[in-house]
Each structure stands twice: as structure tokens, then as C-alpha cells.
Design a protein that fits this description.
This protein is an alpha+beta fold. Among the domains are: about 45-80, no CATH class; about 125-270, Sandwich (Jelly Rolls). Helix content is about 35%, strand content about 10%. It is built from 18 helices and 13 strands. Strands 1, 3, 6, 8 and 9 form a 5-stranded antiparallel beta sheet that branches. The protein has a 5-stranded antiparallel beta sheet with strand order 5-4-7-2-10, with no helix packed on it. A 3-stranded antiparallel beta sheet has the order 11-12-13, with no helix packed on it. Strand 8 and strand 9 form a beta hairpin. The longest helix has 28 residues, at about 425-455. The chain is elongated, with a radius of gyration of 36 Å.
């Protein structure tokens, strides 16, 4: 046993020493398994290296030539650092390489960009809507595919079996599967929830559906939490790899599910569906076109509005939602070429830089996807180009020569910020260039003043000037006058505030116009402005959320839920109030910011205890919206009360924070019931309810229940 342990504990023999035979064996194995395609990148690298070597040899001056002497004198002369860059104009010889690179990239980028056709008609379901369709005789279905449109939720596809019983299959329409073909192969162990029976799905005990044989079918929107409901474009049934014909009978309003039979597909590809982040941005662009409140609000809307231009031109098809991004990617090639040519003044440099950008695979891939990153890069490039043009204006010029490039730089930077928030970081570089440019312009301005004072008289007027001097008269020519740098600096600062602050803020604010007029903001844009100006006396809910509070009291804040690691789930009912409280409050404040008017949040107030407010100080108060309720107050959810999910006033109340206290948060304060207003629903069993509900569903008005005395 001891010997066995000693053998086990003995150190393992080290690796054999490396010999030249093993080196040769490894090298031979590498080259023997090398793909012939390796030759092409190697050949490309050799061409690039040869180009740079030839370029360096061409620029090298011959020894003791005039150019060599001039360069030597220039190097020996003292030079002052400056940012007044030279502007080299385009030449006739630049047209051919610029057009050639642009054409090559355009052909590459638009090649097989996406299908020109996709299902366009749709059926707009609301939760609970159900439609039937049937065939003249039973059919066998082994694959179900459907093309999704707007809305998130799920459908239930039902069929009547041979035994007369109805069976069901769940068809999901999640946020990451919109505008794409979803395919369910029933022969791959699919359960009735539409999930493959696997250990990961935790459904190993479920029974597979298998093929469907039926003549009557029914599809129901079982869950449609958003305002727009569920939009379904096509529902395709397959048998043996072939699409079944259109049903013999469909309910009224359901024909759009089967009217584009030639576009049916049982495969999901990038040519006929969305992929990657296209599940967000084309969807939002389509929502803006249809006046639907957007689902994705992680970035400003201008980039999605640009995408919507292509959708408006070609339809909601893959080529349409990718067209504008690809076009902007093509336009970046000539802009970069002009930038490099103006900056360096050499055609080979501009050609080489633009070629590297043209054949960059990252640039090609990003511009062929319908995301907003392309627009951010485009507007950053253009804004920096015009900042360079501002730096290239010589010192001593009048202020009007600096206005246009400075204005365009700020304008395109503001447009970029309204397209994607990451463009804001590019403003730091612009600000640094602007500051350094102003600092170095001060020194250049002094030199410009000296140069103007010592400028010689032009030969054509030299005689007249000499004669005027002898006669002690005003000469016909005087040295040019350089404007004061102090006045120039103050003027530039004022213009920069307008161009880089006010204009970008206006562009950014106006880009949110679709939010203000989208479905769910009934008063519209002008009504939103009016409510923001008159809040809190204004009517409506555009500037006022049921969750209005200071940020530290938002539902979900750890301060709001002491002792809990995570707040409870928020309501997910239909309507604008169904959005989670933090998101809904943020979108409401975003809508108000679209008018550049700040809507003040509800203020905290200390009040004595009342029957409906036993704690007295634990809450927020706001004045009522009408004269009849101006003196009363609206109780908003307390700091420790989770939100309510009552169906009659969704998202407008609180659950009780103790067994004997119920806090109800109505959209408006208590008001007497009228003949046209139904009584308030029975909120608290065994307790009287005060107030009434509005007959309209857009402005529910419910009041708190009377709290019984604690026993």
C-alpha cells in the first residue's frame, strides 16, 4: 500500500524536449492543412504594403533638388502650433475614384438586401376576439407557420377533432418575433403550448400533439395587453411540405389571414423576416406610421423616423426597412473621401482612406441591418467635417465667414443626438476642438493683424497712393482692416450657444412629436402643450400620471419597498395605464418634455389624519382638475402601498397597506354622482363606497371607500 501511494505521489514525467523533427512536423502539418483561400488575404496584404512603399518612394524628394532644399528650410524654420487647418479643394481627378468607390459599395450593400414582398394585409385582434375558418373536408396539418405584425401576446389555435372535442395549440407572438415567420413543426414533439418537449422547457411530462386532422378551426387572441392589440398578417397550414389551399369558409373580417397565399413560407430567413435588433427599430418605425405608441423607447425616435421613410416608400418589407440605413452607409463613402481630400490635399491619401472604409466588413454589415447605429455614425462624421471647415477658415475674416460651417456642425450633431443618445459623447470632441480652435485663433489673429498692417500696396494702385501721399490726401487704397478678436470671440460664443445648445434641443424635442400624437395621448400635441402650461388645473392625463411622485418614491425603488429585495409585479392590463409605473411615468415625462415645458410633479404635503387617510402624512396630494373638486384633494398611492389591478380603474389605485385600511387613488377627486354616472363599484365589501365612476372608459373617476373604524 505504501509503495502504491509512493508511486501515485511521484511527480509525473515532464514533456519531452522539443526537437527540430517535431518543429518540422508541426510546420508541415500547418501548411498541408492550410486552405487555398489563405492566398487571397496574403495577396491583399502584399498589395497594400506595395502601395504604401510606392507612395513613400514617390513623395520622397530627390537629394539637392529645389523641393529638397525647400523642405529642409521649412524644417529648420520655427513653426507655431495652430489649428487653422488648410482647406484643399477637390480636383477634377478626384471624380473617378470617388464615383468608383461609391458605386462598388452601393452594389455590394444593396445586393440581396431583402425581399421586396412580404405580407401586408392583416387582421387586428383585440383580446378575446375569435374567428373561425373551415375546409370542405378534413385536412391533415403537420406544420403551422404564421407571419406576425404589431402587438405582443399569444393566440390559441383550436380545431374540432373527430371525437367532437376541441383541442388547442398556443401560438406565441413575443416582442422578439415580430415581422417574421414563426414555424411550428408538429412532428418535432411539440406540446399544446407550442414548445418543444425538452428538459430545458421543463415539459418532459407533456404529450406531443402530432399531426392535426380536422375540418373546423378557430383562432382566438387569448392575450393582447397593449392598446393596439395583436396584428396577424398570415396564417399558413402545411401538410407534407406543401401549403394547404385557402379555407373554403372564413368568418367575416378574417380573409386577410389567407389572402397572400403566394408569400407563405415555412422557413425563417433574413430575406423574409427581421433579425437581430430589427425586432425593435423597424417595429417602432411602423408604429410611428400607424400612430401607435411605441414599444421601444430606449433611444430618441428620429432614427426610427428615418427608417419609416423607407417603409413608406417600399412597404413594410425587408428591403423597405433596411433601405434608408444602407443608403446612409453609401453616402458615408463620398463624404469621407471629400473629408480626407480637403484635410490632406492628396488624392492617394483620400483614396486609400475611403477604400479602407468601403471594404470594412463591419461597416457593410451594420448598414445592411435596420438599426439606428448607421445614422449616429453618419451624423457624427458630417458634424466633424463641418467643424473642420470652421477650423479651416483663416484668422482675421469677418464673422459671417464662420457662421455656416459652425451652424451645420451643430445642426448635424443635434440631428445625431435625436437619432441615438450615444452621439452625445461626440459632442465632447466637438467642444474640445472648438475650445482649442478659439485658443489658437487668438494667436493666429495677432499674426493676421500684423500681416494686414505690413501688406504691400498692390502694383496697380501704387502710383495713385504715392501721389495722394505727396498731396497729403486720403489714398485710394488702405490696408485691410482686421476685425477685433474680442468682438469675434463674443460673437462666436453666442452663435455656438444657439447652434450647439438651442438648435439641438429643438431638434431633439421635435423628434418626439410622434409620441405626443400617438394613440394613448388623446389630447394630441397642442393639447399636451396646453395641459403642461395649465397643470395642475388642466384636464386629461397627458402631463399627469397615476404614479406621479418624486423619483425616490417611484414604485420599484428600494426606498419605496423597505425590507424587500424586489417590488411586486406591476399591473399589465390594457390601455396606457397598463405600462409599468416607472416606464409609464418616464414616457409621460418624455411626452411633456417634447414641448420643452417642465411638468411639476406632485408635491409632498403634511396633512392631519382623516377617515380616508389614517396616517395623515404618508402620501402625496394634488389639486383636483375642476372647479367642483378644486378644494378637495386626490389621494395618490402611499409610499408603501403596491399598485392596484382593479379592472374598472386599471392602474389607478393601491392595495391596502394594513388589514383595516384601503387607499383608493382615483384619476380625479370625489364628486357627487349624477344620473348619467353609475355608482362606484363595490370596492370594499361591507363598507360604503363614496363617489361615482365616469360613463366613459378614457377618464375613470372612482372614489375611496369609507374606512371602518378599527375594531
Amino acid at each position: 500500500m505504501i509503495k502504491l501511494l509512493s508511486l501515485t505521489a511521484s511527480p509525473s514525467p515532464g514533456p519531452e524536449p522539443l526537437t527540430w523533427d517535431r518543429v518540422r512536423e508541426g510546420v508541415s502539418w500547418f501548411f498541408s492543412n492550410l486552405s487555398p483561400a489563405f492566398v487571397w488575404p496574403l495577396f491583399g496584404l502584399l498589395i497594400v504594403a506595395a502601395f504604401f512603399a510606392y507612395y513613400w518612394w514617390c513623395l520622397r524628394p530627390r537629394p539637392r533638388s529645389l523641393e529638397w532644399i525647400a523642405l529642409a528650410e521649412e524644417k529648420s524654420a520655427p513653426r507655431r502650433l495652430t489649428l487653422t487647418l488648410k482647406h484643399h479643394p477637390m480636383e477634377r481627378g478626384d471624380a473617378l475614384p470617388l464615383l468608383l468607390l461609391t458605386a462598388v459599395y452601393a452594389l455590394t450593400a444593396f445586393f440581396q438586401l431583402g425581399d421586396f414582398n412580404a405580407p401586408q394585409s392583416m387582421v387586428k385582434f383585440q383580446q378575446g376576439d375569435s374567428y373561425e375558418f373551415s375546409y370542405g373536408q378534413p385536412v391533415t396539418v403537420d406544420t403551422v407557420s404564421y407571419y406576425t405584425s404589431l402587438g405582443t401576446g399569444y393566440y390559441t389555435l383550436e380545431w374540432e377533432g373527430e371525437d367532437g372535442q376541441w383541442h388547442s395549440l398556443r401560438l406565441d407572438q413575443p416582442y422578439n418575433s415580430l415581422f417574421k415567420w414563426r414555424v411550428l413543426d408538429l412532428g418535432r414533439n411539440i406540446d399544446q403550448n407550442g414548445l418543444e418537449i425538452t428538459k430545458d422547457n421543463n415539459n418532459l411530462d407533456a404529450e406531443p400533439l402530432g399531426s392535426i386532422t380536422a375540418a373546423r378551426f378557430r383562432i382566438t387572441a387569448s392575450s393582447a395587453p397593449r392598446d393596439e392589440g395583436l396584428w396577424l398578417s398570415e396564417l399558413a397550414l402545411w401538410s407534407g411540405g406543401k401549403a394547404l389551399p385557402q379555407p373554403d369558409h372564413v368568418d367575416e373580417g378574417t380573409a386577410a389571414l389567407f389572402d397572400e397565399h403566394e408569400l407563405w413560407s415555412d422557413r425563417y430567413t433574413y430575406m423574409n423576416s427581421t433579425y437581430f435588433d430589427e425586432i425593435y427599430h423597424p417595429r417602432t418605425a411602423y408604429e410611428h406610421l400607424n400612430n401607435v405608441y411605441p414599444y421601444e423607447v430606449s433611444h430618441p425616435p428620429l432614427g426610427k423616423l428615418i427608417i419609416s421613410i423607407g417603409i413608406a416608400m417600399f412597404g413594410m418589407v425587408p428591403f423597405g426597412w433596411r433601405f434608408m440605413g444602407t443608403l446612409f452607409g453609401v453616402l458615408m463613402v463620398p463624404i469621407l473621401y471629400v473629408f480626407l481630400k480637403n484635410l490632406f490635399g492628396k488624392t492617394p491619401v483620400a483614396l486609400c482612406g475611403a477604400a479602407l472604409f468601403t471594404f470594412d466588413f463591419m461597416h457593410l454589415v451594420q448598414t445592411r441591418i435596420a438599426t439606428i447605429d448607421t445614422y449616429g455614425v453618419f451624423f457624427i462624421l458630417v458634424s466633424y467635417y463641418f467643424m473642420y471647415r470652421w477650423l479651416a477658415v483663416p484668422a482675421g475674416k469677418k464673422l459671417r465667414h464662420y457662421i455656416l460651417p459652425l451652424f451645420l456642425s451643430g445642426l448635424f450633431w443635434g440631428i445625431g443626438c435625436a437619432s441615438k443618445w450615444t452621439v452625445v459623447y461626440a459632442g465632447a470632441g466637438l467642444a474640445l476642438l472648438w475650445l482649442l480652435g478659439m485658443i489658437f485663433k487668438a494667436g493666429d489673429w495677432h499674426e493676421a493683424e500684423l500681416a494686414a498692417q505690413t501688406q504691400p500696396v498692390p502694383p496697380e494702385v501704387r502710383r495713385e497712393v504715392t501721389e495722394a501721399m505727396f498731396r497729403e490726401e486720403q489714398p485710394a487704397w488702405t490696408p485691410p482692416r482686421v476685425p477685433s478678436f474680442t468682438a469675434h470671440a463674443w460673437g462666436t460664443v453666442g452663435l455656438s450657444v444657439v447652434f450647439f445648445v438651442l438648435i439641438p434641443v429643438c431638434v431633439y424635442t421635435l423628434s418626439y412629436f410622434p409620441y405626443a400624437v400617438a394613440r394613448g395621448n388623446d389630447p394630441g400635441f397642442l393639447g399636451l402643450v396646453r395641459q403642461c402650461l395649465t397643470w395642475p388645473a388642466g384636464s386629461g392625463s397627458a402631463c399627469r400620471s397615476g404614479w406621479s411622485s418624486t423619483r425616490s418614491r417611484w414604485p420599484g425603488s428600494r426606498k419605496t419597498w423597505p425590507g424587500r429585495a424586489k417590488p411586486p409585479a406591476l399591473p399589465t392590463g390594457s390601455g396606457p395605464s397598463s405600462r409599468p409605473s416607472r416606464t409609464r411615468a418616464a414616457t409621460r415625462w418624455t411626452s411633456c418634455s417634447a414641448t420643452s415645458i417642465s411638468c411639476s410633479p406632485t408635491t409632498r404635503a403634511s396633512t392631519p389624519p382623516t377617515p380616508t387617510n389614517p396616517t395623515g402624512t404618508n402620501g402625496f396630494w394634488t389639486p383636483g382638475p375642476s372647479s367642483t373638486t378644486r378644494t378637495s384633494a386626490r389621494r395618490v398611492c402611499g409610499a408603501y402601498s403596491p399598485p392596484s389591478t382593479t379592472p374598472w380603474c386599471p392602474g389607478r389605485g393601491c392595495w391596502p397597506s394594513s388589514p383595516w385600511r384601503f387607499r383608493w387613488c382615483a384619476a380625479n377627486a370625489a364628486r357627487p354622482c349624477s344620473s348619467s354616472s353609475p355608482p362606484c363599484p363595490s370596492l370594499c365589501p361591507g363598507r360604503p363606497s363614496a363617489g361615482c365612476c365616469s360613463p366613459t372608459t378614457t377618464s375613470p373617476r372612482c372614489c375611496s371607500c369609507a374606512s371602518p373604524s378599527p375594531t
